[in-house]
Design brief:
Length: 741
């Protein structure tokens, strides 16, 4: 392999950097020399048998030994011939002289630079002498290995403080070492001197191995002790668990015993209460009977009466003692009916407290949700305020757009139609579109983009392409026909085809292979310039890969669903609905839209109506002019579609937090958090879109978060259900309404 040398003015390695070893310096030198241009000497020349010692001399021509004696020239005369130096050798010598003269021999690595030309000459010989190439290559490899080994040995000698070669001269600079050697005998001396160092390294290796084994043995003892301690602790834990279980059993038994004692005391209390009532009745009956006896027997003996009175007093004393004992024993006991009444009241209060606690927890959660919504709203307000302040600082006076009517074809009437209902930014796009289309009509040919792999398939062409100079109406009709043919083909085959390839195939089929590129370039330039037209801009975005084709079909599906819902609400088929009916139909078609968005659509539907008119002609809201421009209602519906998708992905980005890379499981969790109603099929579709894989591939590697969000933004990613914040707010409003009722 022929080497290349660096130019003479090449820079040397920085002396302030860390000193590399000799092999690194040789590799760096080869890198510097590789920047030089290839030499023309690598071409093979014409070889001759010219001897190296006979430059420009006359050489006697001896007869060949294979000639017969009669064929040899007579006499002893020798035929002399002049052999010039081979041209290839002269070129090699001239190249060597030039290379040596171009070197800067004042640098520290001058010897290595000087060696490089000789190395190149030797490689030229090896490449051209095919017969001797193996032997010459082996010789060169041995020399290269020897040159590499010498710096390595010198580096090992520097690492040893005990053994230094006596025949090596050391030159130590700030961060570089230069070693010179005397002869090959010095290498043998150095190797012999390094033998003790090798033995010392072997001894140190054995000592380190023994130390490691000792440490492992020590750690093994410690591990065994820790295992024994672990087993002891596990047994202690088991004992504690058993003790806990026994204590729990005792507590249960005590509770049962207390309950039984309490029931027994209640029964005894009731029995004693009944006994007291019975004693009172008996006492009263005795008094009545005594009174009747006294009245009946007035002439009875006084002794009997005295004895009866004495016995009655004794009975009264006994009853009084027993009554006092019962009062002392049961004076603090609560009556059973009072206890049952208090127990029932306690149960009612406990149930009410639990209900209030659940209501409080629900209100607390709603309060936290409202706080989070308030915080997000405050952040959004601060951002809007900052944007407003920035816009106020950067704002410029509003231009007088009426001046554009003087330069736009069609005058003030056409400019009024173009500028109706558009913002300043949209008016700038309209003005640029008018200027671009005007310039486009003056161009006769387009330069081709070439046939490289980076060029889109529908623009691969070399040379100039003729401009068809189409009108915007013609371009819109062609693009609509392309969509129509593509959708019909996909419904027939059941497979999704690539729009760029189908676009080129459509043009080739309709206009032929020769004129297909002319139509393709003309349509492409018109789409690129006319960004205000929805048909052209949407086709251009899908064709160039900025957005997925699903977005185009998703927007058309939204418009189609709304038309069906409006037609269903129109029972009389009159083509008109009242404002309330129209609002209800829009809310039914888009249940996830906010009240503000519904109001925006209602206001856009009444764009051409007076404030006093109540009927809305919903059929006219979906009409398009000849250039494909839709009514403000459809434009507002499409802008809300884009805005809602961006808000949805903004919530997803906020839920992912500060993650720079996201996994499939984390992405699924974030989707389920911000959109709880999303189904598994839609979730797998979104994850596959973010990771650019099919649904059958469950395992995906991580991807950067921003890349995943950009892929989701290009696809048709929409919310499947209301957000958790809106759901809690709606439920709170419903509960407040029920409470007021």
């Amino acid at each position: 392999m022929a080497a290349c040398r660096a130019p003479p003015g090449g820079t040397a390695p920085d002396s302030s950097s860390e000193a590399p070893d000799c092999q690194t310096r040789i590799n760096r030198l080869k890198y510097i020399l590789s920047k030089k241009r290839k030499t023309p000497l690598s071409a093979r020349g014409h070889w001759s048998t010219w001897p190296a010692f006979a430059s420009g001399q006359t050489v006697p021509r001896s007869p060949k030994p294979c000639h017969a004696p009669e064929e040899r020239p007579p006499g002893n005369k020798q035929v002399l011939r002049t052999i010039p130096k081979p041209r290839y050798l002269e070129r090699l010598e001239s190249y060597l002289r030039k290379e040596l003269q171009s070197l800067d021999l004042t640098k520290k690595n001058s010897q290595e630079l000087k060696l490089q030309p000789y190395r190149e000459i030797f490689e030229f010989f090896i490449d051209n002498f095919k017969t001797y190439k193996p032997l010459l290559s082996a010789i060169k490899n041995e020399y290269e290995v020897t040159l590499v080994i010498k710096p390595s040995l010198c580096t090992m000698e520097m690492a040893s403080d005990e053994i230094l070669p006596r025949n090596c001269n050391w030159d130590v600079g700030p961060k570089s070492i230069t070693v010179t050697r005397d002869s090959s005998a010095h290498q043998k001396t150095t190797i012999r001197a390094l033998e003790p160092l090798k033995a010392m390294i072997t001894t140190m290796s054995e000592e380190c191995t023994q130390k490691i084994l000792a440490l492992q043995e020590k750690e093994r003892d410690e591990i065994n002790m820790l295992k024994q301690e672990k087993q002891h602790l596990l047994k202690f834990i088991d004992n504690m668990k058993e003790e806990k279980s026994s204590l729990q059993v005792q507590v249960e038994r005590l509770r049962t015993s207390v309950a039984e004692e309490y029931a027994r005391y209640l029964n005894e209390y009731g029995a004693r209460k009944m006994l007291l009532a019975k004693l009172n009745d008996m006492y009263n009956e005795r008094l009545d009977r005594t009174r009747h006896q006294v009245q009946d027997v007035k002439g009875e003996d006084a002794v009997k009466l005295t004895l009866a009175l004495k016995i009655a007093r004794q009975d009264l004393t006994k009853a009084q003692v027993k009554l006092n004992a019962m009062i002392a024993d049961y004076g603090d006991v609560v009556p059973r009916r009072d206890f049952e009444s208090l127990e029932k009241k306690y149960s009612d209060l406990l149930q009410e407290m639990k209900t209030l606690q659940r209501d409080f927890d629900q209100l607390h959660k709603e309060y936290e949700t409202l706080q989070e919504i308030h915080r997000e709203t405050a952040e959004e307000r601060d951002n809007f305020r900052a944007e407003l302040q920035q816009a106020q600082r950067n704002r410029t006076p509003r231009p007088n757009w009426a001046k554009c009517s003087e330069v736009i074809p069609g005058g003030a009437a056409r400019w009024g139609c173009l500028a109706e209902g558009k913002t300043s930014d949209q008016l700038v796009d309209v003005l640029l579109e008018e200027i671009g289309t005007g310039v486009l009509k003056e161009i006769n040919v387009f330069p081709g983009w070439g046939k490289g792999d980076t060029v889109p398939v529908y623009l691969r062409h070399d040379g100039e392409v003729k401009n068809k100079k189409l009108t915007k109406k013609d371009v819109v009709n062609i693009l609509k026909d392309v969509w129509k043919e593509k959708i019909a083909l996909e419904q027939q085959t059941g497979k999704r085809s690539s729009l760029p390839e189908f676009f080129l195939g459509y043009l080739q089929k309709k206009y032929g292979d020769a004129a297909a590129m002319e139509w393709s370039y003309t349509l492409y330039e018109n789409m690129r310039l006319c960004r205000s037209n929805h048909v052209l801009s949407s086709f251009y975005d899908v064709l160039t890969g900025k957005v997925g084709e699903e977005q185009y079909h998703g927007q058309n599906q939204l418009v189609s669903n709304l038309q069906k819902e409006l037609a269903a609400c129109d029972s009389s088929n009159s083509g008109s609905l009242t404002r309330e009916q129209f609002s209800a139909a829009v809310r039914e078609a888009f249940p996830l839209k906010r009240k503000e968005s519904i109001q925006e659509l209602v206001d856009a539907s009444r764009y051409r109506l007076d404030s006093t008119e109540d009927l809305i002609d919903y059929v006219s809201l979906f009409k398009e002019d000849e250039e494909g421009n839709a009514e403000p209602f459809v434009a507002k519906l499409r802008s809300q579609y884009v805005r809602e998708r961006r808000e949805y992905l903004r919530e997803l980005r906020s839920k992912l937090g500060d993650l720079t890379e996201v996994k499939a499981d984390d992405l699924k969790t974030a989707f389920c958090t911000i959109d709880p109603d999303i189904d598994d099929q839609t979730l797998d579709t979104y994850v596959g879109l973010a990771y650019q894989v099919r649904r059958e591939q469950p395992d995906q590697d991580v991807v950067p978060t921003e890349t995943a969000l950009e892929r989701l933004l290009a696809g048709d990613v929409r919310r499947a259900g209301p957000s958790p914040g809106e759901r809690s707010t709606t439920s709170l409003e419903e509960e407040q309404a029920d409470f007021q009722d």
